[in-house]
Recover the amino acids of this structure.
């Protein structure tokens, strides 16, 4: 039986730029205990047993038109403890986002490689 999500993987064209987003803006910490792979990348711990893996590989979908609202695209949903603080960080960094169309306390944005992220405020 499925018991959870171990990790989600995103492709990155520019690892330094992606690290600025995931580490600098979102405050995630890289996990140096992950094994080296045959390509560059980084692992971030999100919660115990949950990670985001960035892989530096060519984007097979380069040029593909993504929907403006990330909720209408494939995405990962992450819980946050303080939505107002996240909004302030995104605003200060000039990162555009859209609010959930369902009325939930959630928003969608994209990372530097146009991967969609949903952030839901924990209750």
């Amino acid at each position: 039986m499925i018991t959870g999500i171990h990790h989600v993987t995103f492709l990155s064209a520019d690892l330094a730029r992606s690290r600025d987003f995931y580490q600098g803006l979102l405050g995630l910490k890289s996990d140096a205990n992950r094994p080296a792979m045959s390509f560059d990348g980084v692992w971030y711990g999100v919660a115990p047993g949950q990670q985001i893996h960035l892989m530096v590989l060519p984007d097979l979908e380069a040029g593909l038109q993504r929907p403006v609202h990330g909720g209408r695209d494939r995405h990962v949903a992450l819980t946050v403890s303080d939505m107002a603080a996240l909004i302030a960080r995104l605003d200060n960094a000039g990162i555009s986002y859209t609010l959930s169309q369902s009325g939930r306390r959630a928003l969608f944005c994209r990372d530097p490689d146009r991967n969609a992220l949903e952030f839901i405020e924990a209750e």
